[in-house]
Fold each of these.
Amino acid sequence: MKINSAEFVISNSDVAKCPKEFLPEYAFIGRSNVGKSSLINMITGHKSLAKTSGKPGKTQLINHFKINGNWFLVDLPGYGYARVSKKTKSVFQQFITDYFEKRQQLVCGFVLIDIRHEPQKIDLEFMEWLGESEIPFCIIFTKADKIGKTKIASHVAEYRKQMLLNHWEEMPQHFITSSENGFGKDELLAYIDGLNQD
Ligand code: GTP
Ligand code: MG
């Protein structure tokens, strides 16, 4: 799929105020700093459509971007950032979980995971919650430019092992990406295109 247009529509912290249009929607979620906003810019080919930062906690709201006039990409705040106050943190978590539970247009959530790290409890727990809530999701491993191919393969294998230990029957559909060099873009867009056709 070719991206012909990508426009920012609205930011808010209330799922009830998200766009009313019933278009297929895909949301990026994951730990702060994992590269959610950068990946939106990479796949749309717009350098600064979504705001990014070297410091975690940059995205604080639900951000809707309309793509090709007929589907939405959603950038969400990260979870697991210790330096936001407890109160702010619980607000983040409430509206993030509200978003996933209530947004009927959501076709698939993409859980972003930094390919460099060992499986983290918070990500496994979040995926467990998605599974229990019957919310469809895929995994996107990010920052693949930061490690070599052999390590990428062994880190993905480690993830698979951890998920099977966590009672998953199989590893969810997953993608390997780099917003630095564009790796994984075509595969991810082709997958979304397939879901848009269903
Ligand atoms: P929050 O909004 O704070 O939750 O973060 P985020 O997940 O949106 O991360 P963001 O896209 O702002 O990126 C965080 C940092 O990681 C930035 O310094 C990016 O340049 C860097 N980054 C993101 N993706 C990649 C990648 O694929 N490769 C490399 N090398 N750096 C990346
Ligand atoms: Mg962000």
Amino acid sequence: QKYKIEKKPLLVENLLSPYLGSDFKNLQKQIVYHLEHTLPRNTKTFQSFGTYLATSYTIRDRLLQLSHDTQKYYNEKKVKQACYISIEYLMGRFLRNAVLNLNLEEKYEQALAGFGYALEDIYDEEQDPALGNGGLGRLAACFLDTLATHNYPAWGYGLRYNYGLFRQSIGSEGEQVEKTDVWLQFPYPFMVENHFLRIPIGFYGSIETYVDEKTKGTRFKWHPSEYVIAQANDILIPGYGTDNTNTLRLWSCRPIEELDFDKFSLGDFKGASENRLNAENITNVLYPNDNEVAGKELRFKQQYFLVAATLHDIIRRLKEQKRTIYELPDFAAVQLNDTHPTLAIPELLRILLDEEMLTWEEAWDITQRTFSYTNHTILPEALERWPVKLISHLLPRHMQLIEAINWKFLEKVRKIDKNNGELTKKMSLIENSWDTLVRMAWLAIVGSHKVNGVSGIHTNILKNIVFQDFHSFYPNKFVNVTNGVTPRRWLHACNPKLSELITSTLKSNDWIYDLAHLSKLREYAENEDFQLKWAAIKTFNKRKLQAYVKKELKIDIGCDGVIYDIQIKRIHEYKRQLMNVLASIHFYLKIKKMSKEEKTKVQKRVSFIAGKAAPGYLVAKKIIKLINRVSNVINNDPEIGDLFKVVYLPNYSVTLAELLIPATDVSEHISTPGCEASGTSNMKFVLNGGLILGTLDGANLEIMENSGEENVFAFGITSKEVPQVKQRNIEQGAWNLMPEELQSILGIIEEGKFGEADEFRGLLEELKGVDRYITGHDFIPYIKELENVMSTYQKPHKWWKMSILGCAGSGWLSSDRTIKEYAEKIWGIKPCPLPKIESDKELG
Ligand code: NTF
């Protein structure tokens, strides 16, 4: 026994080797060391950015040490681990989170103060790695925080893109402008390149068939014709108040041969580098689509590259423990984050059959027991289907295996298919439509032992509508695990004043790892003194946002007595930012018609919108343009003054969200019911005392259940009623069913009030014609609820009571609760906290 086991308070210092002492003088020495030796700079050219880097390297040292200890311990204990495969991780800034999780904030503050820097400013030097688009990638990042905090043995696997999600700015016409996100132009100190782990990944080629001498059975072997190398880059994930430190392993692609020397010698310099460029292309760019399929061959290569490297690594680690391949399902629970990593299923099967020489039955059993799949969207345009032709060319053996899986699966389906082949056709993994396509979600369902949706309503839609046939076929496979968010980043770190108030009120900070404790805030909901403190923190956070808007956008907005109403998320038709801006036009026109006297009674409001549109999603880009045009007219109209403003905040990111969410009074989650699988930012707002203005969709419903219906501004119809409304729109024409108020707003846009008449024609034609997202139908209830928001804000006692009760009910929205459910219902893993050792006496 190397570790002496004893129960002691969780102190990071205990485990560190002596040279990593954490008294502030020690930290200063470490910082100077990195400044001089790692960067290297000298103490005279010491600047904020260098200080940030040097400080970050000291954190990295600590995490490296802890992660070595963690891996060693997990290996000794042979614990089962979760492996989360995701093509996106939206991590946000690292330094503050790590410093807080390691409980070293005060000491770093002191250390840096001695060098003339405020820790807060040093945090601001960090750029925000954007290796994800939206909810799916941010969820993965919240999960990593929870897994480490609660001592779960777990790995994240993903891709290290050279260029993350594009940076957005707004052009002079109000349009979205995209720029490459060159996030690796400066060192990223939290990523450790692992040069020892280089895995060859094959593509293309042919299949050899041969007879196995032992069994006399037919065997197959794939001979790829091209190889690239997957190199590991590790980001170490600290947990809050624990030594357990997990790993997020991101693969980057390198060529097998860096330079073709023959070509180089002949003077063909371009040709000489071709190999390298082709390989690097694979992990070059994150595809900027959210809730939509890119459908490009390179994306497919990315997907295979990710899963092939990951499975190789998992099996390598299994064998390092001297365990056999049969033990794989007891060694790792592999979660497929949406269908992007579905190729892991045929890839594992290939390894088990062609390399490990297992029988089909054995291989299939292991595969199904290893994988589980999370569905994150039901939008048809987001359900991946890849052409059989493309797969056969790129991965011939995998296509053969997909056909075999399908064959064996359909054999069973045929037995219950009473409707002459109808069901078989519907459930086939291969679809014959405009092309022959593999339905990736079908493959993921068949190859996994559990499939989950991400909110109650979403899982019900999966079971009863989208995957109904599969649910009848596999009645125990579908489960719900409602999403959650990490309270470390989304309350403790981003809203320090509220965190302090909660801790001092509850006389404990236990809520940070057990969010259910927030329920004790209920008894303070009507306490006036507490309400005042609560409201004062909101004002403090709003002032920060007000200053940001002034500095970055040169727009003056008010703060006291002004509602900050926010909608921040990807721009998508189903999320209905269009309905939001149409309502802004409505209120604008309404105020313009008011007398002086009436204007004094108007509740002041700022409507903020932020979010990126996929560069190829033209409708979404038009919506951004319209918002900016409307904002320009309203904000510059002297008749409106400070009564109402519309502010579009460019370049939405995790970091910007950390500023916006604590400053929000009311946040809009107004998707067409049935379209938003869950939503997770809604949870973050509630946690920070923001109120929800929302439809009966996704996690809004569960927020209502937990925080109380009376504490949410809900409006509109249920998802079950949506199809009828859509049908009516189709039959009668949406224009004929549209309320007059909205008709006249469309008329004003068409007259060219917000730019050339033609500019927004496409947007308006959709609303007038089919109105797929039923904006016309929901417009009046939406406006009414917004009015209700405004009049409630004028009753502070009621408002703050709602705000406090919302927060008090949000315990259940923690990703800690979510992960516990995954661990118990799906993965079968348990926490494995590192034992505490008494440190050798810390050196100076
Ligand atoms: C998103 N899906 C959904 O649109 C959100 O409602 C949900 O909260 C998050 O996933 C996390 O579950 C996607 O990003 C994708 F890629 F599936 F479309």
